[in-house]
Amino acid sequence: MASVWDEQSSWSQAANRLKAAIGRARTLSLFMGILAALLGTAASQAMGGSRVLGQTFAFAAALAAGTVPLLARQTGPKAIQNWTRLRSMSEAIKNEVYVFLAGAGPYRGAEAEAVLHDRVGRLRSETSDLLPSVIGLSPVARPLPAITDIDSYVDIRLKGQIAHYYRPKALEMGRRLAAVRRAEFLFGCAGALLGAVAGAYGVAQAAAWVAVVAVAAAAVSAHSTASKYAYQQVEFARTADELERLLARWSVQGQQSAQSDDVFVRRCEEVISVLNESWMVKWSTE
Question: Which residue segment(s) compose the domain that 31 sits in?
């Protein structure tokens, strides 16, 4: 049992590492795209006063622009697919562990641990091409979840996921989305102001910077779309709501049977799995 829990840690670390690399590449690509536009405009305006300075800006702009497609490779479909599959594997093992600890479903009986290893083995065979991603990763030392029955499953797994993961994540994605909207608004205001200055006072330099602001706004919007903040906010909130409904129905059912407990646990894990599977489809097809 401990070996399965350790294996889950390794898969989770691999997924986290790849996700962090994708996030860094996206953020750097956003910065470099904006920097390229800024330096390109600065180069065109500096040429009249200092050719050397203008050429320096132009070189830096070309260099910044050249890094964008290189960074895009690190955020391409293959990287996204590998990340989502690593995360899916980690969550699938975690699901099996929680059901095993609760003693529900296929884990009611003396052969429960053998069944666990068999099911995890099948999961591993489906992702054998990703095994190099976990090589060299040491499992994080952590105790097994203190789950021994359905009641503790509800308290630790179900309520814990809702209160400490899905709800906070929905709020976090909402904050990120709001930050993007504010940035888009500010860029829009800046563009309008520069355009007004250029039109009213004939300041050609201001007109040139309107395009830079437009590029920056478009880059921020593209970054938000690629990161899927709005989608993630909805999915986290939806999953939390569905789990809360399952919990409410289970709480009012009164006397529970082994069969009803199995159905309840299976349904909870299905809701969690659906989120993971929908992510795989969403991230891999766009």
Answer: 2-285
Written as one string, the DSSP assignment of 218-252 is HHHHHHHHHHTHHHHHHHHHHHHHHHHHHHHHHHT
> Dihedral (C-alpha) 131, 133, 137, 140: value to the nearest 10 degrees?
-90
Q: Cβ-count burial of 154 within 10 angstroms (0-12 exposed, 13-18 middle, 19+ buried)? A: buried
143, with CB counted inside 10 A (0-12, 13-18, 19+), is exposed
Residue type, 200: A
CA distances from 102 to 106, 122, 173, 253, 262 (A): 11, 21, 31, 19, 10
pTM > 0.90: yes or no: no
Counted domains in the chain: 1
* Residue tagged 């093992």 (tokens): 93
Mind listing the pLDDT tens digit for each residue in 161-216? 999 999 999 999 999 999 999 999 998 999 899 888 887 776 777 878 888 888 88
Contact assessment for residue 88 and residue 280, using Cβ atoms and an 8 Å cutoff: yes
pLDDT in tens, 65-96: 999 988 888 888 889 889 989 999 999 999 99
Q: What is the dihedral of CA 171, 176, 182, 183, to 10 degrees?
A: 180
